[in-house]
Amino acid sequence: MIKKILVPFDGSTHSVKAVELASDLAAKYDAEIMLLHVLLRGHMPEGLKRAMEVEVGQGGGSSVHHLVNYPQEILARVDDKKTTQLSVDELNFIGEKMLSGVVELCRDKGVNSISKHIDEGNPVEIILKLAGSADVDMIVMGSRGLSELKGMLLGSVSYKVNNLSKCTCVTVK
Questions:
Q1: Which member of 49, 79, 99, 102 has the lowest number of beta carbons within 10 Å of its beta carbon?
Q2: Nearest Cα to Cα of residue 126 among 84, 90, 93, 95
Q3: Cα–Cα distance for residue pair 49/55, rounded to 1 Å
Q4: 43/49 Cα distance (integer angstroms)
């Protein structure tokens, strides 16, 4: 029986699809969804920059990004070609806003129990640690995140989690 589903979320298209699938499963089995965002300390992936630009520049993007508002000070720093360094507070703010939008998506799909988790560090380690400590039954995650080139060269987070996890893993494309 499925009681807890962990969904790592980075704002990528694949992670949005993972949330949608996990929400369908959670609604059907009355399971809890645990949303996780791992802070990418010190830099902003191109995919997240594009998502922010779409949100601010054109008033909306994917089903999740249109729910997020970013302060102009953060956007100015992201747009600066010389540096994409963001503070932990700024990354936390972005992560919290992203997860708040995802919570609404889950609720719209009929999920009753939702928790949000933000952590920093190695995404594989954080995902596996939370899955183990929370006694998660299933991990649903996107097959590709925002840092696709690095994942292709070194092995994606989803590949590593799938191979190291003790619970069922579903990878969404």
A1: 79
A2: 95
A3: 10
A4: 10
State how far the Cα of 110 lies from the Cα of 19, in Å rounded to an integer: 12
Rounded Cα distance, 115 and 103, in Å: 8
CA distances, 157 to each of 104, 111, 130 (Å): 25, 26, 15
Provide the percentage of residues in the chain whose pLDDT is more than 70: 66
Q: What would the two tokens of residue 171 be?
A: 């990878």
Query: Tokens standing for 7?
Result: 């969904």
What domains are defined for the chain?
4-172 (3.40.50.620)
| Lookup: tokens for 1 | 């029986």
Q: What is the pLDDT of residues 122-168, one digit of tens each?
A: 899 999 999 999 999 999 999 866 554 444 444 588 999 999 999 99
**Cβ(8)–Cβ(38) under 8 Å?**
yes
Q: How many other CB atoms are found less than 10 A from the CB of residue 123? A: 24
- How far is CA 84 from each of CA 25, 34, 43, 47, 50, rounded to the nearest angstrom? 37, 29, 5, 13, 13
Task: Give me the torsion for CA of 119, 120, 121, 125, rounded to 10°.
Answer: 10
